[in-house]
Amino acid sequence: MKKYEHIIFDLDNTLLNFSLSEHHALKAMFTKYGVIFNEETFAEYKEINHELWTKLEEGRIKKETVLETRFAKFFALKGLQVDGKVADDEYRTFLENRNDVMDGTVELLKQLKADGYSIYAGTNGVGRTQRKRLKNADISEFFTELYISEEVGFEKPDMRFFEAIFIQEQIKDLSKVLMVGDSLTSDIKGSNRVGIDSIWINNFNESVGDDKPTFICTNLKQIENILNN
Question: Which NCBIfam families does the record cross-reference, listed alphabetically (predicted)?
Fold first, then answer.
């Protein structure tokens, strides 16, 4: 008998290879605006973006602030004045045209579906972008439902994001729910807040902080072993 019945997957750097997609999309953006794309400029953008997303997860700013200011701030460092909202929309178009997935994504989803699990996406992001990327990757069919923070109205790790899933799917027994994700600060912290088990995919050999997952793996192939044991 299976311990879990419902599996909630984060998307970026869990099932979808966001790092690779982001790399290509940013390269296209920098080229469009005449900025050299190299390790230094990439790191400058990442620092700005990370700071904004951290503030969003902490509830200090709204998502609109992240999306409308990150490119405006970055290009300002390069002496360029751009409309942040327009630039973000351009970036999102580049991103949406990618179909990069993590190794083992399709095989895992096929097996879990065959094994009778209910599979959900639980992701912080923009609805149109996440849906388009899932469609491009040809994996939309595996999900019972998609829960995207822009559409839900709350960001992980907010308990209300997870509670929206439980209510919509009429899940009463939370011991049957498993969250899978790569972020300690959103996926694992959120799971701990609502009292569900979690698998942390440690892609970058990081240390576990205060928010400890139930299980740890370094790739998707290890998830089946966790579920079977």
Answer: HAD-SF-IA-v1 (TIGR01549), YjjG_YfnB (TIGR02254)
Provide the residue ranges of all domains of the chain, joining segments of one domain with +.
6-17+101-228, 19-96
12 is an active site residue: no
pTM over 0.70: yes
Sheet with 118-123, side-by-side order of all strands: 145-148, 118-123, 6-9, 177-181, 197-201, 215-217
Active-site residue, selected from the candidate residues 10, 12, 158, 197: 10
Level-2 CATH architecture, domain 19-96: Orthogonal Bundle (1.10)
Query: What is the mean pLDDT of the segment spanning 172-185?
Result: 97
Distance, C-alpha 196 to centroid of its chain: 18
Specify whether the CB–CB gap between 203 and 182 falls below 8 A.
Answer: yes
Question: 27-86 pLDDT, tens per residue?
Answer: 999 999 999 999 999 999 999 999 999 999 899 999 899 999 999 999 999 999 999 999
CATH T-level fold of 6-17+101-228: Rossmann fold (3.40.50)
The span from the CA of 168 to the CA of 187, in Å, is 19
- Give the pLDDT confidence of 136-168 residue by residue, as tens digits: 999 999 999 999 999 999 999 999 999 999 999
Phi, psi for 194 (deg, rounded to 5): -95, -5
Phi, psi of 101 (to 5 degrees): -125, 160
